[in-house]
Amino acid sequence: MISRPETAASGGPAETEHQPLIRLRDIYKIYGEGEAEVRALQGVSLDIEAGEFVAIMGPSGSGKSTAMNIVGCLDRPTSGSYRFAGAEVGSLNRHQQSLLRRHFLGFVFQGYNLLPRSTALENVELPLIYMGRPPAERRAVAVDMLARVGLAGRERHLPSQLSGGQQQRVAIARAIAGKPDVLLADEPTGNLDSVRGREIMDLLTALNREDGLTVLMVTHDPSMTEFATRTVEFLDGRIASDNQHREAA
Amino acid sequence: MAYETLRLALLAILRNSLRSFLTILGIVIGVAAVIAMVTIGSGSAKQVTNDVSTLGSSLLMVRPGKLERGPGRGGGASAPSFDLRDVEAITRQIKGLEAVAPVAQGSANIVSGSQNYSTTVFGVDDGYFIARDLKIAEGRSFLESETHLGSSVCVLGETVRSKLFGRGDPLGATIRLKQVSCKVIGLLVPKGASGFGSDQDDVVLMPLRAFQRRLAGNRDVGAMYITVGDSVTTAKAKADLEALLRERRRIGPNDEDNFSVSDMKEIASMLTGISNVLTGLLSALAAVSLLVGGIGIMNIMLVSVTERTREIGIRLAIGASAGQVLMQFLVEAVVLSLLGGMIGVVIGLLLALVGTWFLSVPFTIDPATIALAFVFSALVGVAFGFFPARRAANLDPIEALRHQ
User: What is the ipTM score, two decimals?
Assistant: First the structure.
């Protein structure tokens, strides 16, 4: 259905070199023009290896969410190069980008972003539908995933019948249902109290350690960085600091 | 995936069932109109063909005035009528005719006891029963002596009987037509509506001479039904008739006829022609209704895309391709319009059932028309659903996700 980006890439000179999973080079993102010009990102370069758990910190307006959206293929940089597993994402067309999101990326948002009229199970099945998996397999995987996030027995619940923490777990189950390489989490605990927030963080840590899932998490809460293997701080559209505090799994 | 898309579309439609229903109303009305029109139209065409085949194509109808091709204009008033001498001349001079039936007609108010009713009275002789294929249900037809003398007797059609007598027995009763008293001697077997919708049972028949003398007060013959025998062709008889009538009515070689001789085939094709024009006109109106329905669907789909921008954003983030989102909305539009088509077909058939029952013409379902209605409503869905669906598919994922 899709060729892995490695083979899709036009076999550049870097083939023998080491390729990080995510490689940003000199990324600029500029909104508006003239007086109203906003420079959200001003020359960001960042390498993320498979298996890392990276926390991206920074005040609002520092460009951390913009960088996250570019990595997630939801937004395109104004200039600069973004390679995913060696493939130049900027040269992919709209359809190929949707395939990249479908097969390699999983998203968790601050506001959960579940489909309100679909049950927990249906929400988790959604990415599998787009992958073209047969219904029986889809159902089995979705039930598994919900069990994995501790929501066994809640398959038939609508999002409105679940607490915030439970909704976020459904969102995580949905994000990992398609077995992505990278989980992108934008303020995943932003709407939760500290106990629920910690539960979500434990879940993400487990996914990172046990499944080797690469996690990229935007947060403004410094206490959340303790779960990460590395913390990158953004300020005014640039990377202000980059500390690895633990070996990646 | 196809099943999922369909299920999704149905869910979205059911979620807003009232809005969905209002949206498809245009399609429903358009399709119902087409189906009803075509079914009733083909039913009455069939009825006309039936009428003609029971009458036989060897029947000629002679009327004063030119035959106008249009409803309600037959028999120009300025042309002189025929009289019994014309009938006699035709009977004597033209070979190969089986029967010549002169007819005169007029409307009259009929009174029986406390009931009164206005209907059409025909002055006829025995030939008319043969020419129009009329049969006596009860009582009897006119005796030769009654026809000859112009006795004051009459035969009633079913509609007139029920209006005047209800459950009572009309045979032997006396009714009054204008100032003339008249004895009821027979009842006609009901024929129902003609191919063109007029009630053929709303008649009173009396001997021609009685009609002329007592009711009309003249000797005019309004029309003649002529049955041609097997020994000559209808065309030959028609030509002979025309020549004789031109001579008798003193029409110069370069002047136009002031009478018409038409065979039933001609009359049938005229009637079908008129009903075809009407069907065409109404179908054009129905097409406009379908167009309006399509625009309604486009409008509501655009609203739906705007309302569901966030949902589209989520789907795109999860990995839906633009094509999959396009499909989702396109299928929704097509399902909507097909649903409209389906309801329209059912309503149209019900209308046709009632319509054909009232006109007493045969009701037949034409599968080709119904299939066409479905294809057409699906096409409306695709045509008017494409633009909103493309708008949904082309949404920028990050913009869509930020949408509240």
Answer: 0.88
